[in-house]
Design brief:
Mean pLDDT: 91
Strand content: 15-25%
Radius of gyration: 17 Å
Order of helices and strands: HEHEHEHEHEHEHEHEH
Number of strands: 8
Strand order of the largest sheet: 7-6-5-4-3-2-1-8
Largest sheet: 8 strands, parallel
CATH class: Alpha Beta
Helix content: 25-40%
Low-confidence stretches: 228-244
Structural class: alpha/beta
CATH architecture: Alpha-Beta Barrel
Number of domains: 1
CATH topology: TIM Barrel
Length: 247
């Protein structure tokens, strides 16, 4: 697992340089290692290299991995599309959810969060124009935020997005800037929203320049995903679409 250590070192340097260029401190930015379809020993190697935050998209894959690594004080982020019948294990086992886009799911997560656990950190996924992806429209984010802050076992932390596929660098940057502007507007309206989850292996420098506090990076840390033997994507609404998350 030496490659993971080397890859992580390179990613950290890229984060540092991007933050410096943006006049920011790299300590403001959390690397969420996208560990879906990676074995537990790869996650353990990343942990030993200093990572603490890991992102999973598939509940049926994540739970046994989390059980195998229960001795680690890892922070688990759910970054896939949320199915109504999978909210309980998400509420019980994860510390963060990046992909909340429905009030009904928010209520279920709050109701199913264990009473002894701290509130679940959640981000509203915003869709900035890709009909193939999940997320609320920009003008619907305030309404969902208002519903979330009334739920006792959820802590609204901010917004998340994935730019539409196929955009050039300038258009991708514009998407990140739009999310930051939306967050700022919601804060002006009275919502506490510190975090922006945006940026993946191919574009996280642009996301950092726009204000990202959470970057979801998989391939640049772990290498290509281990497709053989990996679980089939969980279906959402019967459309068979793979979850949106990060890479």
């Amino acid at each position: 697992m030496t490659d993971i250590t080397e890859h992580l070192s390179a990613v950290r340097e890229r984060v540092r340089v991007a933050a410096e260029r943006a006049g920011r401190n790299a300590d403001e930015i959390t690397i969420v290692a996208v560990s879906k379809q990676q074995p537990a020993d790869a996650v353990q190697a990343a942990y030993r290299a200093g990572l603490r935050h890991f992102g999973e998209s598939y509940v049926q894959e994540a739970l046994p991995k989390m059980d195998a690594l229960r001795s680690l004080d890892a922070v688990w982020h759910f970054i896939g599309r949320i199915q109504a019948n999978k909210t309980r294990p998400i509420a019980e086992r994860f510390q963060w959810v990046h992909t909340l886009d429905r009030e009904r799911i928010a209520r279920r997560l709050s109701e199913q969060r264990p009473f002894h656990a701290p509130p679940l950190n959640v981000l509203i996924q915003v869709n900035l124009g890709d009909p193939r992806k999940a997320g609320v429209a920009s003008d619907e984010a305030a309404g969902l935020a208002a519903a979330i802050v009334r739920l006792p076992k959820l802590e609204l932390r901010g917004l998340m997005t994935i730019p539409p596929a196929g955009l050039d660098e300038r258009a991708t940057t514009t998407c990140f800037e739009r999310l930051a502007k939306l967050r700022d507007g919601l804060e002006d309206a009275g919502f506490s929203m510190r975090d922006l989850s945006m940026g993946m292996s191919g574009d996280f420098e642009a996301a950092i320049a726009a204000g990202a506090t959470l970057v979801r990076i998989g391939t640049s840390i772990f290498g290509e995903r281990q497709a053989p033997g990996s679980p089939a994507p969980e279906r959402a609404g019967g459309n068979g679409e793979a979850p949106d998350d990060g890479r």
